[in-house]
Amino acid sequence: MRLVILGIMQKTPTTLKDRRAHWERIYKTKGLEKASWYQSVPTTSLELTAECELGPDASIIDVGGGDSLLTDHLLELGHRDLTVVDISETAIDSAKKRLGKKADQITWIVADAERFFPPKSYDLWHDRATFHFLTDEGEAKRYVQTAQRYLNKGGCLIIGTFSEKGPDTCSGLPVKQYSESSLTELFKPYFDKIQCEYIDHVTPSGNKQNFVFCLFKKS
């Protein structure tokens, strides 16, 4: 098991400290099953991953994966090259505790999704509910450029983000809403759209959040 803590280039320490402190506070005060993003089975993510037809040795990175159960399911499916990135060390520690010895099979990275540089390239880049926190156009474009730079040719990119019918805030922060067309337009310079779908996620409190999920392939 590797735990890497990455900083952010060209970002003031105060801003990074504040952003990390916010998410540490969220993860320390909310149990996993009470968090709005909780899914016992991340069905859509798993179905779109299956569309990529990846072998067990394919490299997969889950950006903002934190304490998500996606990694648990990928391990059960036989995937052996997994990386999880999250800004919150608390979230990662929680996931490692849940997984026990299985956590040793995963590379864990503590970093902000806005500006981080992965240690290698990947066959699948997955992001559910992180991209929409990049509300500045420059932040979003830098993210897209990083994804294309560290995704292998023909690799898959799965993005799940709040749709135009979804919330405009989450966990006390503003978010950027997307339609299928606006999300496709943003990634179009480097990626071909394979499919998109709108999904209602029901939170543990019973609220509905509408997501748009898109599967892209690197051109």
Summarize the structure.
With 219 residues, the chain is α/β, with parallel strands linked by helices.
Can you walk me through this structure?
- This protein has 6 helices and 10 strands; from the N terminus they run βααβαβαββαβββαββ.
- The protein has an 8-stranded mixed sheet with strand order 1-4-3-2-5-6-10-9, sandwiched between helices. A two-stranded antiparallel sheet has the order 7-8.
- 37% of the residues are buried.
- The longest helix is centred in the N-terminal third of the chain and has 17 residues, at 13-29.
- The radius of gyration is 16 Å and the shape is globular.
- The chain is an alpha/beta fold and 219 residues long.
- The chain has helices spanning 13-29, 43-51, 70-76, 89-99, 137-149, 180-187; strands at residues 2-5, 59-63, 81-86, 106-110, 122-128, 151-162, 169-170, 173-174, 191-202, 208-218.
Question: Which helices and strands occur, and which strands form pairs?
Answer:
Elements lengths: L1 E4 L7 H17 L13 H9 L7 E5 L6 H7 L4 E6 L2 H11 L6 E5 L11 E7 L8 H13 L1 E12 L6 E2 L2 E2 L5 H8 L3 E12 L5 E11 L1
Parallel strand pairs: 1-4, 2-3, 2-5, 3-4, 5-6
Antiparallel strand pairs: 6-10, 7-8, 9-10
